[in-house]
Each structure stands twice: as structure tokens, then as C-alpha cells.
Amino acid sequence: MTRKPSKIVLAYSGGLDTSVILAWLAENYGCPIVAYCGDVGQGHDEVEGLRQRALSSGASDFEFVDLRREFIEDFCFPMLMAGAKYEGRYLLGTSIARPILARAQVEVARKHGADAVAHGCTGKGNDQIRFEVTYAALAPDLQVIAPWREWDLRGREDLLAFLKKRNIATNASATKAYSRDRNLWHISHEGGGLENPWNAPPEDAWMMTTAPDRAPETPRDVLIDIEAGRPVAVDGLPMPGERMVEHLNTLAGAHGVGRIDLIENRVVGMKSRGIYETPGGTVLFEALRGLEELVLDRATLRLREELALKVADLIYEGKWYTPRREALFAAVTALARPLTGQVMVRLFKGAATAVRRRSPNALYSEDYATFSKDEVYNQQDASGFIRLFSLPERIRALAAGHADTRQAAHGAAR
After folding, report:
1. Residue in 118, 12, 98 with CA at minimum distance from that of residue 57
2. Is 120 helix (H, G, I), strand (E, B) or coil?
3. What are phi and psi of 394, to 5 degrees?
4. What's the CATH code of the domain at 134?
5. Is 262 inside any structural domain?
């Protein structure tokens, strides 16, 4: 513990950890604590009664900020345009939510005149980095308090005992199957039996998606309208981002779409195992990729893929509020300008597959691609092209042949 702040804003979820942290901060720092919750679509069950719970646990005030539309349209959709997937698979649902949550926390701190912010992230995970990198970028003057790195409480039993001793009510139990993080984009599940990578995920772990083998026997086709790389309508119905993702989560989740089981490399250096459900996001990724295949030439698509790797790492590391992110997204936005069109995505037994696509900016042309007689491609031109395209190989082979001839002549002379 360093200096004593005059007021702290705590990122508060109402779960076991932050309920303990709220009371612990009040006892150990002796100043007003503003409990703040940013709504990124974690669900009604998680936010219902949160104000009363916070105030009864020792908060001096409570702030609830609805971030759902901004989260999807200003964070998730740009990430989608970039095609960013961490280590090729993870659609970054937890990672992408942290910058907007931490930014709103800073704004609440300014509003209430607080000089410190606190979070409930553990000292082993990625989230402590994402929150604190955002604090550093937006409000380096604020003191950062991370109780999990200060106190001597170690396990779930310690936390429950802490609350019991102080007569603070909680609905948490001594056992918890998984650690979960939920928002509109996804839900993650970690801990419990999943920590053993030899254990297959039990079916009761999944919450947003139906088991693919129990999904409907009839596929469901979903039409996605895209303008300049941004999804704007589903089945012809324009929707704001948060409604669209919520709607697609329901449709795709019923068909078992969006499950992954991943062992990933955390920023802090260790590996962790998690299972993720991102049904709506999976559909949108597939739709946009289907449109890219139709519109972008090979070199441009390759550039977008290279940028996707950089963007995924940047988001995973919480470096949203940086000049590097601004530069990367300027490029991503430019590459996405011609990506306007419609894509039909088929949902069936856990898969989302683009089956139809069209765009006024398509580079694909039946006139060029057809194997039938056409007037735009002279097959004889291929001979000269191939000869030039293979010139390095030809020169290398000729040079090797000359070297062999010289070596044979030298051997004969001896």
C-alpha cells in the first residue's frame, strides 16, 4: 500500500471477488468507495439489484453505465473488420471489452473527483494488464489499487469467510465450477475441471450454444448485409449493433455455432485453457470473410491477414489507446471500403459457412473464371506469363548445369 487516496472508484460486478474487495477497500483505505459497473451485455441476472448490493456492502455511491452499443459498434465491429483472431482461433471477447470498461471507469473517477481506481483482477491473468494499460494511457495520475496483489486472502474459502465475519450477504458458494466472463460478444469459461487439458469440456459447461449433435437437422440460412466492412442488417432488417449480435447469438447458438476449446499463451507468460462461445461473432466473421474473397485481390487480402495478426495481439494485450492502434485501424478501414454486399451464411450442426455472396465491387467474374469459350482471356498468353514467372527457377537450373559442365571438364583435365 502506498499513499492514502481520498476517493476510489472500483470496477464492481457484484460477484464474490468484488464484494470482498469493496469491504476490504473501505477497511484498509478508509475513504469513500464508488462502485462502478459498465454494462457490455453481461445479462440481466448479473446487473439486477447491483446498486442495492453495492450500497449495502459499503459503497458510498454507485454508477451504472450502459456501454452496449458503443462496445459492439466502436470496438467489436472494427475488430471484426480487421479479421482479428488471437492465435488463429480466439475471437477476443474478453479482451475487447476491457478497454471500454476501463475507460468508462476513468470517466466515473473524473466525475466523482476520485484520485484512485481499483479492479478485481488476479495477479496471474491478462485482465490486470488490460485495465492498467488503459489507466496509464488515459489517466496516469490516478493511483491503481489491485487488492489481489496486496492482501493475504488466497482462495474462495477465505473470501467467503471474510464476508461472513462482517455479515455481508452473498449468494456465492464454497464451490464454483468455472470462472466465467460474459458480454454481448461472447462468454468464456475457465477453471475447474477445464484446467486439466486431458478433460473434454462437459456439456453442462456451455451456456450460449446447443450441442452440435443435438442441433436442428435442418440448416438455417442467414443473410448478412455489409457496408464498407460493417454489418448493417440481418435477413433484410437493419439493426443497431447490440441488437444484431444479440439476435445472431440466439440464431447461431441454437445451431451449436461458435464453440472453441483453446489452450492459449497469456501475456504474462503462462499457458491457460479456456472454452469460449461466440455464436453471433462467428457468423459475422464468416460473412465478412466470404465478402473479402469476392472483392479483395490476392495482395490486398494478404495485407489484411497480416494486419489481423498485429491487431489481435494488440487487443489481447490491452493496447487499444495507442498510436499503433490508430495507425492499424486507419489501414483496416481503408482496406474495408470496397467491402459492401450481401452474404448468405448457413448454420448447421456447429458450422457457419458462407454459401452465397454478391457485391457491386466483386473482382470475381464468370467471364474470366469460366472454362467455357470466352472473349476476355487468351489461353495462349499463359505461355509467355509462365516463362517469365518461372525465370528465377530457369536461371538457377541453367547456372547449376553450367557449373556441373565446368566441374566435369575440370575433372577430365586432371
Report:
1. 12
2. coil
3. -65, -45
4. 3.40.50.620
5. yes
Q: Same domain for 23 and 147?
A: yes
Adjacent-strand bridge partners of 371: none
CB count in 10 Å sphere of residue 175: 8
Kindly provide the residue ranges of all beta strands, DSSP E only, lying in 12-58, ordered along the sequence.
33-39
Identify the helix (H) or strand (E) that includes residue 222: strand 220-227
Whether 39 and 159 map to the same domain: the answer is yes
Catalytic residue list? 17, 98, 127, 179
Q: Nearest 5°: CA angle at 103, between 189 and 146? A: 65
What is the total residue count of the chain?
414
Cα distance between residue 332 and residue 100, in whole Å: 20
Edge-to-edge strand ranges of the sheet holding 230-234 = 237-238, 230-234, 220-227, 341-348, 351-358
Burial class of 299 by CB neighbour count within 10 A (0 to 12, 13 to 18, 19+): exposed
Strands (DSSP E) contained in 235-385 are 237-238, 259-265, 271-277, 341-348, 351-358
Please report, in tens digits, the pLDDT of each residue of the chain (414 residues total). Answer: 467 999 999 999 988 899 999 999 999 999 999 999 999 999 877 888 899 999 988 999 999 999 999 999 999 999 999 999 999 999 999 999 999 999 999 999 999 999 999 999 998 899 999 999 999 999 999 999 999 999 999 888 899 999 999 888 776 766 666 889 999 999 999 998 999 999 999 999 999 999 999 999 999 999 999 999 999 999 999 999 999 999 999 999 999 999 999 999 999 999 999 999 999 999 999 999 999 999 999 999 999 999 999 999 999 999 999 999 999 999 999 999 999 999 999 999 999 999 999 999 999 987 666 655 556 677 888 899 999 999 999 999 999 887 776 676 666 666
Same domain, 389 and 406: yes
DSSP code, position 73: I
Q: Are residues 198 and 215 in the same domain?
A: yes
